[in-house]
Structures are given as C-alpha cells and as structure tokens.
Amino acid sequence: MNHGMRREHFTLDVDNVDWVDTDDEPRKPSVSIDFTGPATMLRERLTGTDGDVLEAGETDVALRLQDPLGDDARGVVSVTNRITGEFILELNEAADDVLKFIRAARGYGEAANDDDGRYEVEITLDGDPYVTYDKRTFLVYDDEGSLLRQHSLIPSGVEL
Q1: CA 74, CA 71: separation in Å to the nearest integer?
Q2: Contact predicate 15/33, CB 8 Å
Q3: pLDDT (tens digit per residue) in 2-23
C-alpha cells in the first residue's frame, strides 16, 4: 500500500466567504489547496490518460461527512477524477466551514447570474500554482453515503 500522499500534506485556505454572514457584495469564493508532499504523485493524479492536466469538467469536488451534521461535525473534502472515479486528493475539514463555503458559492452564482464557475479551486505544489478550476458543482454526502441535496451545490438543470 502506498502512503506517499497523506492528508497532512494538504493545507486548505478559503477566500471570499465572509460576505455571506454580513450581506456584503457577493464575491466569488475560492479555495486554495497547497500540497507539500511528493509532487510527482499529485501531478500523476492530476493528469488524464491523454497526458494532459485534467480539465475542470473532468474533476468532481465533494464533502463526505464523518459525523451526523451538528456541532463540530467533521468531513473529508475530496477531489476525484470524474473519468476513472479515482481520488486525486482528500483532506479533513470542519463541516460547518465547508457548508459556509457552499452557501457562498450558491449566493455568488445567484448574484453573478453567469455560466462561469460558482467557485474556484487552485491547487498549488509547495506554494507554486499548478492548476486552477472554475467549478459549478460541490456534492455533500452524509456519514451514511447519501447525497444531501439541500446542502450540495448543484446547478439548475443538472440531474444526478
């Protein structure tokens, strides 16, 4: 079993979410994920079968709760390869923080009223930008593995 990529190798920073609680002007939320582990392994996971870096539409972002929703619930944020279903990366986060991020993305999407992404994901390797995705979907699953539609970010017209 390969233990080259650990959740501890990832740090997550979020921007443009506090306006949700203050009714300020909506801004596009962004998350920056910095990886400090073996860069070759993450580069391989972010590369498609054609040898190119995966496009935004070839990736999925999700939160899988580890506890029932409530005080101090924790979850695992994951980015997966939509084509193969393989995990690209995953890291532990407080569920409330992730749900606030999703609310900000939903609010931004309603205010911006455009077809671009509702939020941005930037993956950096030791602080150097590697890939940035504009995303429109962020799925949330409970601790039993069931989709929580009311907490997920699902664009209108998309059937799951």
Answers
A1: 9
A2: no
A3: 456 788 899 999 999 999 888 8
Token digits of residue 99: 């749900």
Residue 109: CB partners within 8 Å, gap ≥ 6?
A: 118, 136, 153, 155
* Banded pLDDT at 1 (limits 50, 70, 90): very low
- How is 91-120 classified by DSSP, letter by letter? EEEEHHHHHHHHHHHHHHHHHH-SSS-SEE
Structure tokens at 76: 């695992």
Q: What are residue 12's DSSP bridge partners? A: 33
The DSSP call for residue 89 is E
Proportion of the chain in helix, strand, coil states, percent, rounded to 5: 20, 35, 40
Cα-to-chain-centroid distance, residue 139: 9
Q: Where are the domains positioned within the chain?
A: 6-135
Q: Give the Cα separation of 119 and 101 in Å (integer).
A: 9
* C-alpha span between 135 and 133 (Å, rounded): 6
CA 117 to chain CA centroid, nearest Å: 12
20: enclosing H helix or E strand: helix 19-22
Decide if 92 contacts 8 (C-beta within 8 A): no
